[in-house]
């Protein structure tokens, strides 16, 4: 499988304010995106995600390093013509209707005549905007503006979709529809590169992920290989615990839920077995024993958030090759 996006030692430095203070937004990152996959690009606010996306789409130039799409330098007109881009906060001309705006984007991509009008209608229907296609954009909600921007990204039938926070402003129904659309685009042979803070969506859709922290990559690889699928913790719920058991559970961080039940997350089978024996011998009722597998949120917190607290030393990123 060929690599559609290649990034090598990419850096971006900005100069801010009157003092021209140097700020490094991206610090020597390298990764590759295979074709026909959904690639999740993650990180806390300020990690460098949007800056990297702007470099890939040719909106800004890197300070150092290289980025290429379809084997051509990022920003090359031939490469850009094969991309559909949805920015984090899409600007849609407020005096146009969604149909007029999407048609304009199609014309800028080289579409004309009946094929352009048919394609505009098709993508507006797919994104759920067609019923409001003749309304001025200034009268639409934020979610509808987001859908209109997504329709504009799709109108030229791109080979690569670059989506920066595509779920922003969408209600649960809209999120599901966009998720289904992204999965359908991959099924049709498209490559999808997207950034989001909704980790559950990434875990349910993505083939690979990259996680940034302070401009550096801390995690890169196939999602299934990165997540520790073996049981990590067990949720135990006990009702009617005697004083000995209650004290033991509270020492492990148990909390009472208001109905006389104690709930605790336990690591290690030996501790779990000990608590079950104490409950049985003390006449307590065990209401729940639920294994908890590692999720993308667990991985994200461990690698992208927790290390920032009191830690400044650089670490080798977690990389899992296919």
The rounded Rg comes to 24 Å
How far apart are the first and last residues' alpha carbons, in Å? 11 Å
* Class per helix and strand makeup: alpha/beta
Helix and strand element order:
EEEHEEHEHHHEHEHEEHEHEEHEHE
Q: Runs with pLDDT <50, length 5+?
A: 309-313
Q: Give the fraction of residues assigned to helices.
A: 25-40%
- SS summary, helix count: 11
Largest sheet: 7 strands, mixed
Number of strands: 15
Mean pLDDT: 87
The amount of beta strand, in percent, is 25-35%
Shape: elongated
Summarize the structure.
This protein is an alpha/beta fold and 322 residues long. The protein has helices at 49-56, 77-80, 98-108, 113-126, 142-154, 172-187, 199-205, 223-226, 243-251, 269-281, 296-305; strands at residues 3-16, 21-34, 38-42, 64-69, 72-73, 83-86, 160-164, 191-195, 208-213, 216-222, 231-239, 255-256, 261-266, 285-293, 318-320. It is built from 11 helices and 15 strands.
């Amino acid at each position: 499988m060929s690599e559609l996006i290649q990034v090598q030692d990419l850096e971006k430095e900005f100069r801010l304010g009157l003092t021209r203070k140097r700020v490094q937004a991206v610090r020597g990152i390298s990764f590759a995106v295979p074709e026909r996959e959904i690639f999740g690009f993650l990180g806390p606010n300020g990690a460098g995600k949007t800056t990297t996306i702007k470099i890939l789409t040719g909106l800004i130039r890197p300070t150092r390093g290289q980025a290429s799409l379809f084997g051509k330098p990022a920003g090359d007109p031939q490469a850009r013509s094969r991309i559909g881009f949805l920015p984090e906060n899409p600007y849609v001309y407020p005096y146009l209707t969604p149909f007029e705006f999407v048609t304009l984007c199609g014309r800028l991509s080289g579409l004309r005549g009946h094929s352009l009008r048919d394609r505009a209608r098709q993508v507006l229907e797919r994104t759920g905007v067609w019923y409001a296609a003749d309304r001025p954009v200034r009268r639409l909600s934020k979610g509808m503006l987001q859908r209109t921007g997504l329709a504009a990204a799709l109108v030229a039938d791109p080979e690569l979709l670059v989506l920066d926070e595509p779920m922003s402003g969408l209600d649960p129904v809209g999120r599901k529809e966009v998720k289904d659309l992204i999965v359908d685009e991959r099924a049709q042979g498209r490559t999808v590169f997207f950034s989001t803070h909704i980790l559950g969506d990434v875990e349910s859709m993505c083939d690979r992920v990259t996680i940034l922290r302070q401009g550096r990559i801390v995690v890169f690889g196939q999602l299934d290989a990165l997540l520790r699928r073996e049981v990590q913790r067990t949720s135990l719920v006990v009702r009617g615990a005697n004083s000995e058991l209650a004290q033991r559970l509270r020492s492990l961080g148990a909390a009472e839920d208001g109905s006389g039940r104690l709930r605790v997350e336990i690591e290690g089978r030996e501790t779990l077995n000990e608590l079950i024996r104490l409950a049985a011998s003390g006449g307590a009722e065990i209401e729940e024993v639920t294994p908890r597998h590692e999720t993308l949120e667990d991985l994200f917190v461990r690698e992208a958030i927790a290390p920032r607290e009191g830690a400044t030393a650089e670490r080798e990123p977690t990389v899992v090759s296919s």
